[in-house]
Design a protein that fits this description.
This protein is α+β, with helices and mostly antiparallel strands. The protein has five domains: about 100 residues; about 130 residues, 2-Layer Sandwich (Beta-Lactamase), CATH 3.30.450; about 100 residues, PAS domain (Beta-Lactamase, 2-Layer Sandwich); about 160 residues, 2-Layer Sandwich (Alpha-Beta Plaits); about 250 residues, EAL domain (TIM Barrel, Alpha-Beta Barrel), CATH 3.20.20.450. Helices cover about 45% and strands about 25% of the residues. The strands form six sheets. The chain has an eight-stranded mixed barrel with strand order 23-24-26-27-28-29-30-31, surrounded by four helices. It has a five-stranded antiparallel beta sheet with strand order 2-1-5-4-3, with helices on both faces. The protein has a five-stranded antiparallel beta sheet with strand order 7-6-10-9-8, sandwiched between helices. Strand 1 and strand 2 form a beta hairpin.
Length: about 900
C-alpha cells in the first residue's frame, strides 16, 4: 500500500502530519497513533454522556424555571453527540477500509488462559489470502485451534513475550507449516494500549523459493565451474570492487578467509614472466573494445606452476564509459600436460629410430613414421590404406602369424621375429612388437606395431654362436661343441651297432716354434694344421681343436674301429710334411692316440681320456706316430696319477735326497767335481728314478720348488765338503725350464750361495739345450746374470735339440756336455763317432770345455781321450752315489 499525497483524512486519522506518510507503505506504517486517537474519542464520548445524565438529575431539584434552559442544552448536546458519533463512525469506516485493503496480513489477538493461547479479534483480507482462511471462521477462535503450527514456528511464543513485556518484536523469517499450510512469513508483533496484540505479517514464500532457486543455481554454477575448472570474476570499473567465484580461489589455491578478491591479488598470482603479456592483452582489449583470450601461467603459493586460459570482456555505457570487466579463468594444466605429451609423442613418433606403423580395426595402414620409410623403402603414399601383408617376404613360417594373432586376441600384445621384404626386394629379419588399442566398450580400434631391422643382431648372434661352438683361430669345433657332437656320434653308433674312433693329436715341439718365431707364426701354423686335418677326413667326421696344439678327430660310422689306422696314417703323413709359414720353413710332427668305441670306453669322457693316454704313449715312443689305447697304458696312467698325488707331499715330508755322480778329468784321471742328481725315496715304492717323477713335477708346476731344494741341498753339501778340506768337490746342479724362466732365479742363487758360503768356482749350473733354446734371447740374458755371480755354466744334452750355432756362440757358457745318446754307440756307429768328434772340435774352437756323459766302456774312454774330451762321466767310473759314499770317493781323489 502506497500513500498518496492528498490523503488528508488518513493523516488525520493516524495522527501524522501532511508529508510524513508520502511514499510510505503499509509494511512500515505503525498503527499505534490510530489506536490512541480511537481510544481518546471513545473516552470523550463516555464523559460527555455522563455529564448529561448528571445535569438531568440536578434539574429535577431546581424547579421548572430551568426546564427550558435544560431542554435547549439537551438539544445542543444531542446535536454535538450525534455529530461526534457520525465523525467517529466515518473515521472507523476509514480505518476499516485501510485495515481491509492492506497488502500485509493483520491479525488482532486477545490473550486468554493467562497468555497460554490467544483469541482472534480481527483479521483483514490480506490475512485471509495469505492463510487461505475466512475472517468469519477465525474471529473468536483460538490461535492454536486455527493454526496449530504456531507452536513449532515460534509465533505463539513471540505473541506471549510481546503481550507480557509490551516490547515489539520482529520475526524477519520463519517457516510455518501444518497439515493445511506451508509457507515462509515475516512478522512484526506489537501490543496495543488496551492489551490487545497485533501481528502484521507478509508471505515471502515466493521470495524464499526464488532465493532457494537462486542458491541452487549458484551452487550448480559453482559445481559446474569446479568440474570444468573454470572460475569467473567481475570488476566494477567505477569503484574498483572485484568479485571472484569460488573456483577462482580454488584455481589460485588461495584461502578466501585469508585473501580477499582484488585486482592486485589476481595479478600477483600470475607468473612474473607472464604479467606483462596479460596486462598488454587487457590494455589492447580496452582500446579495441574487443574481448581477449590468452593462456598464461600462475605461480601458486607453494611455487608450483599452473597453466590457465583466461577470457575477458568489458561492458561500456552508451557514452563509451567502461562500466565493468568480467571474465573467466580456466585451469588448463591437465590439457597443457596432455598437449605437451601429445607433442612429445608426436616427436617420438616422428624421430623414433624404430619403424612405427598404425593400422585401423580392419588392419589397413593409417599412419607410418619416417623410420618406417627408411627401413622398408615404402613412403606414406605407397602404403596408405594398404594391408601390412605387402611387407611379407614369404620366409616367415605361417605358425608365427598364427601365434601372433592368438596372442593379440588373448593378451592384446605380441612380440617376435619376422622376415620381411623391402621395396627393393631385399629380405631382412625384423623384431616387431604389436599392441591392440581398444575403446571404452572394449572394441578394437587400432593396431600399433613398432619394429627394427635385426640383420646386424642376427649376424652378431651367428658370430656369437660360432664363437661359442667354434675355435676362434682355426674355425674348428671347440671343446664344448666336441663334447656335444661326440655324444651324438656315440648315440648314433650305439643305435646302428657300429664303432667310432677318437684320435687325440698333439703337435710335437710346437711350443718351441711358437716361442722362437712368435705367436703370429704359431697361429698361422695351427691354421694350416687345421686345414690339413679337415682335408684328411670325411665330411661326416668331426674335427676339433681343444686348445694350444691339441686337436681331436672323431671318425664316425666305422664297421671296424681298427679302420681308423688308415686315417691315422694319413694324418701322420700329412701333418708331418714341411710347412712354409710367413717365409719360414717349419717342421713339426703329430703324436696321435686312438681310442675305439665301445671297446675303450662308452662315454665321451672315457674315450677322450684313453685317447689322450695313447697320445702320450706315442710321444714316449719317439713322436711322429700313432698308438692305440691299451690296458697297460691305463695302468701307466694310473701309476702316473698316483705319483702326481704323492709328489705334492714328498717335498714337505723330506722324501727327496741327492746322489752325486763324479766327473773325471781326462788328462790325469782325477776327480774334479760331481753332478747332483735328485732321487725320490718313496715310503712305499722305494727309490724312484728322476725320469719318472721329474716330468710330473714339470707338468704340475712343482719343479721350481723342487729345483730350489736341490740347489740349496747341493750347496749345503758342497760347503760341508770344503769344510772337510775337499777341494775337488765342485757341484753341478741342473736348472729346469721353469727355473730359468723365473725372474727371481738370479736372486735365489745369490742368496743360497751366500747362505752356505759357496765360492765362485765351486758351483756349476747346467741347462739343457732345449731349455736354452726355448727362448734364446731370454736365456742369454738370464745366463749372463748368473755368469756375473761367478757361477760356471754348462749346456747339457748337447746335440739332441735344434739349437742354432749362432745362438750357441752367444750363450755365456763355459762347458758343453755331450749327450749319452752319441756316446753310447761311439765305438760301433760311425755317425755317432763323427758327431761326437765334430762336437768336440766345435766346442774347443769356441773356447768351451766338454763333458762326455754316459761313458761306460774303456773304448768310449779311449775315443774321447783321443779327441781331447776334457771330462768324463759315467758308470765306467762311478754310478751316482749317496752323500756319504760320494765323500769317500772324493777323498780318494
Amino acid at each position: 500500500m502506497v500513500m498518496e499525497p492528498g490523503c488528508e483524512k488518513c493523516h488525520a486519522i493516524l495522527g501524522y502530519k501532511l508529508g510524513d506518510m508520502r511514499g510510505a507503505t503499509g509494511l512500515n506504517l505503525p498503527l499505534t497513533p490510530y489506536y490512541q486517537r480511537l481510544e481518546a474519542t471513545r473516552t470523550s464520548l463516555s464523559l460527555n454522556h455522563g455529564a448529561i445524565w448528571l445535569l438531568g438529575l440536578l434539574g429535577i431539584g431546581w424547579g421548572g424555571w430551568s426546564t427550558r434552559l435544560q431542554e435547549r442544552e439537551r438539544s445542543r448536546r444531542d446535536a454535538e453527540r450525534i455529530a461526534a458519533t457520525q465523525s467517529l463512525e466515518a473515521k472507523e469506516a476509514q480505518y476499516r477500509a485501510l485495515f481491509g485493503n492492506m497488502n500485509d496480513g493483520v491479525a488482532v489477538y486477545r490473550a486468554v488462559d493467562g497468555g497460554s493461547d490467544f483469541e482472534f479479534l480481527d483479521f483483514n483480507r490480506a490475512a485471509e489470502r495469505i492463510t487461505r482462511t475466512n475472517r468469519d471462521q477465525v474471529l473468536g477462535r483460538r490461535v492454536k485451534e486455527v493454526f496449530p503450527g504456531v507452536i513449532d514456528s515460534g509465533l505463539l511464543a513471540a505473541l506471549r513475550r510481546v503481550w507480557q513485556s509490551g516490547v515489539a518484536e520482529s520475526l524477519p523469517l520463519f517457516a510455518y507449516q501444518d497439515k493445511r499450510l506451508s509457507l515462509w512469513v515475516e512478522n512484526d508483533v506489537m501490543r496495543l494500549p488496551g492489551g490487545e496484540v497485533v501481528a502484521v505479517f507478509r508471505d515471502i514464500s515466493d521470495l524464499k523459493r526464488s532465493e532457494e532457486a537462486l542458491k541452487i543455481d549458484h551452487d550448480r554454477l559453482n559445481e559446474a565451474q569446479r568440474i570444468a575448472k573454470v572460475g569467473s570474476w567481475t570488476q566494477d570499473l567505477h569503484n574498483g570492487q572485484t568479485e571472484w567465484s569460488n573456483e577462482i580461489f580454488r584455481i589460485f589455491e588461495i584461502n578466501p578467509a585469508q585473501f580477499g578478491a582484488s585486482k592486485e591479488a589476481f595479478l600477483n598470482a600470475i607468473h612474473p614472466e607472464d604479467r606483462e603479456k596479460v596486462n598488454r592483452a587487457y590494455a589492447e582489449s580496452r582500446v579495441n573494445r574487443q574481448p581477449y583470450e590468452i593462456e598464461h601461467r600462475l605461480r601458486l603459493p607453494d611455487g608450483r606452476i599452473k597453466h590457465v586460459q583466461e577470457r575477458c570482456e568489458t561492458l561500456y555505457a552508451e557514452d563509451g564509459t567502461p562500466l565493468v570487466s568480467r571474465g573467466t579463468v580456466q585451469d588448463v594444466s591437465d590439457l597443457h600436460e596432455t598437449e605437451e605429451a601429445l607433442r612429445l609423442y608426436a616427436n617420438v613418433f616422428s624421430h623414433s629410430g624404430e619403424a612405427i606403423m598404425i593400422t585401423d580395426r580392419d588392419n589397413h595402414i593409417v599412419a607410418v613414421n619416417p623410420a618406417f620409410t627408411t627401413l622398408t623403402g615404402y613412403t606414406w603414399a605407397d602404403v596408405h590404406g594398404q594391408n601390412p601383408k605387402l611387407l611379407a617376404s614369404g620366409r616367415t613360417p605361417p605358425e608365427t602369424y598364427q601365434g601372433m594373432w592368438s596372442s593379440l586376441q588373448e593378451t592384446g600384445f605380441w612380440q617376435g621375429e619376422f622376415w620381411d621384404r623391402r621395396k627393393d626386394g631385399h629380405i631382412y629379419p625384423k623384431w616387431a612388437a604389436i599392441s591392440l588399442i581398444r575403446d571404452e566398450e572394449g572394441k578394437i580400434t587400432h593396431h600399433i606395431a613398432s619394429f627394427t631391422d635385426i640383420s646386424e643382431r642376427k649376424a652378431a648372434e651367428e658370430r656369437i654362436h660360432r664363437l661359442a661352438h667354434h675355435d676362434v683361430l682355426t674355425g674348428l669345433l671347440n671343446r664344448f661343441s666336441l663334447e656335444t657332437r661326440l655324444e651324438q656320434a656315440l648315440l648314433s653308433a650305439r643305435r646302428e651297432n657300429r664303432e667310432a674312433a677318437v684320435l687325440f693329436i698333439d703337435m710335437d715341439r710346437f711350443k718351441t716354434i711358437n716361442d722362437t718365431l712368435g705367436h703370429h707364426v704359431g697361429d698361422l701354423l695351427l691354421i694350416e694344421v687345421a686345414r690339413r686335418l679337415q682335408a684328411s677326413v670325411r665330411e661326416s667326421d668331426i674335427v676339433s681343436r681343444l686348445g694350444g696344439d691339441e686337436f681331436v678327430v672323431v671318425l664316425t660310422g666305422l664297421d671296424n674301429g681298427m679302420d681308423s689306422a688308415h686315417c691315422a696314417d694319413m694324418i701322420v703323413e700329412v701333418l708331418g710334411q714341411p710347412y712354409r709359414i710367413d717365409g719360414n720353413d717349419l717342421h713339426t710332427t703329430p703324436s696321435v692316440g686312438i681310442s675305439i668305441f665301445p671297446n675303450d670306453g662308452s662315454t665321451p669322457e672315457a674315450l677322450m681320456k684313453n685317447a689322450d693316454t695313447a697320445m702320450y704313449h706315442a710321444k714316449e715312443l719317439g713322436r711322429n706316430n700313432y698308438q692305440f689305447f691299451t690296458t697297460a697304458m691305463t695302468n701307466a696312467a694310473m701309476e702316473k696319477l698316483a705319483l702326481e698325488r704323492d709328489l705334492r707331499t714328498a717335498l714337505m715330508e723330506q722324501q727327496f735326497e741327492l746322489h752325486y755322480q763324479p766327473k773325471i778329468c781326462t788328462a790325469d784321471g782325477r776327480t774334479c767335481g760331481v753332478e747332483a742328481l735328485v732321487r725320490w725315496r718313496h715310503p712305499e715304492k722305494g727309490l724312484i728314478p728322476p725320469l719318472k717323477f721329474i716330468p710330473i713335477a714339470e707338468e704340475t708346476g712343482q719343479i721350481e720348488a723342487l729345483g730350489e731344494w736341490v740347489l740349496d741341498e747341493a750347496c749345503r753339501q758342497q760347503a760341508a765338503w770344503r769344510a772337510q778340506g775337499l777341494t775337488n768337490a765342485r757341484v753341478a746342479v741342473n736348472l729346469s725350464a721353469h727355473q730359468l724362466r723365473s725372474p727371481t732365479l738370479v736372486e735365489r742363487v745369490r742368496a743360497i750361495m751366500k747362505k752356505h758360503g759357496i765360492a765362485r768356482d765351486d758351483l756349476e749350473l747346467e741347462v739343457t739345450e732345449s731349455v736354452a733354446m726355448d727362448n734364446p734371447e731370454r736365456a742369454i740374458g738370464r745366463l749372463k746374470e748368473l755368469r756375473d755371480l761367478g757361477v760356471t755354466l754348462a749346456i747339457d744334452d748337447f746335440g739332441t735339440g735344434y739349437s742354432s750355432l749362432a745362438y750357441l756362440k752367444l750363450l755365456p757358457i763355459q762347458i758343453l756336455k755331450l749327450d749319452r745318446a752319441f756316446v753310447r754307440d761311439i765305438e760301433s756307429d760311425e755317425n755317432d763317432a763323427a758327431i761326437s768328434a765334430a762336437t768336440l772340435a766345435l766346442a774347443h774352437n769356441l773356447g768351451l770345455k766338454v763333458v762326455a756323459e754316459g761313458v761306460e766302456t774303456e773304448g768310449q774312454q779311449y775315443f774321447l781321450s783321443v779327441h781331447q774330451c776334457d771330462f768324463l762321466q759315467g758308470y765306467l767310473f762311478s754310478k751316482p752315489l749317496p752323500a756319504e759314499e760320494a765323500t769317500a770317493f772324493l777323498r780318494r781323489g
